[in-house]
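Example pasted here:
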Amino acid sequence: MADNAGIAGNTGDIGATVDLAILGGGSGGYAAALRAAELGRSVVLVEKDKVGGTCLHRGCIPTKALLHAGEIADQARESAQFGVNATFEGIDMGGVHKYKDGVVDKNHKGLVGLIKSRGITIIEGEGRLTGAQQLTVGDTTYTAKNIILATGSYSRTLPGLELDGGRVIASEHALQLDHVPSSAIVLGGGVIGVEFASAWRSFGTEVTIIEALPHLVPLEDEANSKLLERAFRRRGIGFKLNARFQRVEHTETGVRVFLEGGENVDAELLLVAVGRGPTSANLGYEEAGISIERGFVTVDEYCRTSVPGIYAVGDLVATRQAAHPQLAHVGFAEGIMVAEHIAGLPVVPIDYAGVPRITYSSPEVASVGLTEPQAVAKFGADNVKTVTYDLSGNGRSAILQTKGAVKLVAQTDGPVLGVHIVGDRVGELIAEAQLIYNWEALPSEVAQLIHPHPTQSEAIGEAHLLLAGKPLHVHD
């Protein structure tokens, strides 16, 4: 066992000694547990709430269920344009929650059964790192050859802006509202804010997004941001860009948000969606010698922390090599990679630019690879080429009545560097785009592939035909 001098010990019960102990049962933690068990390791998985973490219970899954309910509402309202007579009578939030919670419960039960079937021990309780090879839960200490920290993230707020769970709320509160708000202000135009704005608008809420940066979804290519903004204007979703929050006051009917410059906005409630912070405080990390920057655990390309034998994955970490996206599928990939690295298998570090990114609004925004400015910064303006294929030329998109585009960023006479898409259901296209980017495909190589007709996937093929210099359904 490693020397634990200077680290607070535990005088309680001695628990099991295992190959791997994991603190946190969210996406990264349980993925690591499952893969390690497959590789014959004994595993203890510590979780203070429910396995599945934020993604399954308070994030990805319930949010997308809410968005799908909103999509059904929009289809009911717009059915006449398809020759279908239907009446939209309103939103039953009790029914929406029953549907949403049913999806979550089904996935949770399946996950618990899967974990137990692999012989993994789930420890329910709040754990702490109490040594280089020790996790303590309550009065019991577990010893492990390796430890993975996977404690996830929490909803951030701004200094002086207190969440009350009623009128000033975070995303987890928004998922539990028992009514459709008549109006809402969304502070933050990133993925979380845009998705809730989209869902609420589908339910009939008057929404205003406040974003401090020049565009919505500001981490996306500007072309994607502008297409989304145009679509939101058509849907009646308001937004104020380059607008900085100053303070909020409660009113008789809700809240009033004051912006720098003197403008103010009134609504029933304020959703604070300014990002997620790492859950690292008061868990013994720094006492154990773990290097932390701004609350994030710093790791190398193999997710190793500054303490030998201890790894960290998921929303908790900051990588030294590149920006680290807070995405559930990144957690899955890191968990698998770490389990294999511990087992001594050859692993390839994750190229985070090659991770697909999707915003599940209406329309959806999907991308992988470099934005145009990133490509120009890396290769120079003369060595970067872009094309845009409008979805108006795609038959399936016309059937679905969706607008948008596929933008490709490529190295001149070289591989595709980025794929950026906007349109309903385009999130399902980004898996192919991921292969194109990660396999460094040339436009001509993708252009010769045959995409089935009529599908939205043809838009990927058409864009590459255009980039290869032989456009098909494209006007000059």
